Amino acid sequence: MDxxxxxxxxxxxxHALDRAALVRLDEENLGQRIMSENARxxxxxxxxxxxxxxxxxxxxxLLTRSEAQQRFGYCEPWVYLGREDSKDYFAxxxxxxxxxxxxxFAGLRALAATVDGAxxxxxxxxxxxxxxxxxxxYCSRCGAxxxxxxxxHVRACTHASCGEQHYPRTDPxxxxxxxxxxxxxxxxxxxxPAHRYSTLAGFVEPGESAEQALVREVMEETGVEVxxxxxxxxxxxxxxxxxxxxxxxxxxxxxxxxxDQELEHAFWLDRDEITSRMQQGLFVxxxxxxxxxxxxxxxxxxxxxxxxxKLRENTGATHF
Length: 320
Ligand SMILES: [Zn+2]
Known about the structure:
By secondary structure, this protein is of the alpha+beta class. It has 9 helices and 14 strands.
């Protein structure tokens, strides 16, 4: 499978949305779209997404303009997200909403699992843009206020002698399944739920390639030497604005030393050990919406008679 196909299997990466980037530059066209019956609004309040209040289970609310105005009192400021199935989608930024307008919101992690891949992608995009706006109200060059432009995809400094334009940021991070022989390397952070383990990950630093970051992070976190690495796929991870670059890697050494204390525990496990630990509730996988799950799944299923997803269902370990 090539990298494009691999990436398409990751949640939050649906290709159904046309981002219509050129429309952002055309104010008249944007104005028509936002007034149209086909406009749909996703409310975001402190990075939580508005849910459908009619529905008993948490489901995102995709509101018409009049519904959004009725519920939130206004539809601005907004970010144009793009077009999908003849609908134009906008994120409404509600951080300054009055308290009575802020009921009925839920987190992306919970909502992403309840909708199809295309809608999950849209919600993740809305959340990432809201997070960027929230953190760029002031110019990082001169400190003056910024204003939203180009359909919410630029924040321009209002100081006449500065005029800096700020664009949405994405922070690259590597995430890697390290293997040696029949075993793979897993680690856990102290703040995670009990028995949750995952692949290793870390941010790419300035002046560093993704592959250098991978070798450095694995060494810092576990003391394990990486000999080779193969790119797998990528996934946006809007918590708040990362792009996860997924790899599998071959280790040259096995001894584990927790050098930077970022992990509280790391160990090597083969497939039988994972199966046994999952059955005892002693090994909880990362959520299936994550690229981490996909990296583990691809490795596990390569030499297993039972697929990892099936095993997860059978052991009842399906919580997030
Ligand atoms: Zn400025």
